[in-house]
Design a protein that fits this description.
Blueprint (H helix, E strand, L loop, with lengths): L1 E8 L3 H14 L4 E6 L6 H9 L5 E5 L6 H12 L5 E6 L11 H7 L5 E3 L14 H18 L11 E4 H5 L4
Parallel strand pairs: 1-2, 1-4, 2-3
Antiparallel strand pairs: 4-6, 5-6
Helix pairs in contact: 1-2
Length: 172
């Protein structure tokens, strides 16, 4: 069984050049799918170059920029039916998700259907955010939690790990 990381990108050429080697250095057996939305800075071309070095790196080139949610839907659709996938992790390419926590996500997914790398738990946090951005994020999460009734404090987390079987039950 393999684990897979989805990394959506738009104008992340410089970040992806550092992020991918760092991930593969720490987790040489991980698989990565970069979903690029026609980045004008050549992000997809940079990923294509790195594919020659990292055989577990794949690229999904999208012809238009339709947003993050649509990028994830396309990524999930591209791996639907691949029964050799154990878990899927989503993370950003901007450095906001620390690679050292990938291990925690992968260990905990053995016991849970979904693991969230949350900013809003003891030990969590954000760096270099303006006060208004942090306020907006916390207020949006509170509103979402009240609206949905879910006990999750970070509904907008982009650093998650989910079992493949759970993804297969979702109608995108």
């Amino acid at each position: 069984m393999r684990d897979l990381i989805f990394i959506p990108t738009y104008n992340e050429k410089n970040n992806i050049s550092f992020l991918l080697p760092e991930i593969f250095s720490a987790f040489p057996n991980i698989h990565i799918l970069v979903i690029d939305d026609q980045s004008p800075d050549g992000t997809a071309d940079q990923v294509a170059k790195l594919q020659k070095i990292y055989p577990r790196l794949n690229l999904l080139r999208r012809s238009v920029k339709n947003g993050l949610g649509d990028a994830y839907k396309a990524a999930y659709a591209s791996v639907r039916g691949q029964s050799d996938i154990r878990a899927i992790i989503t993370m950003d390419a901007d450095g906001s998700h620390q690679i050292k926590y990938l291990k925690d996500l992968l260990v905990r997914i053995k016991d849970y259907d979904l693991v969230i790398g949350s900013r809003y738990i003891p030990g969590g946090g954000v760096e270099n955010w303006e006060w208004w951005r942090q306020f907006l994020s916390r207020a949006g999460n509170l509103y979402s939690r009240l609206l949905t009734g879910l006990p999750i404090h970070d509904l907008t987390a982009g650093f998650i790990c989910v079992r493949r079987e759970v993804v297969g039950q979702i109608d995108f």
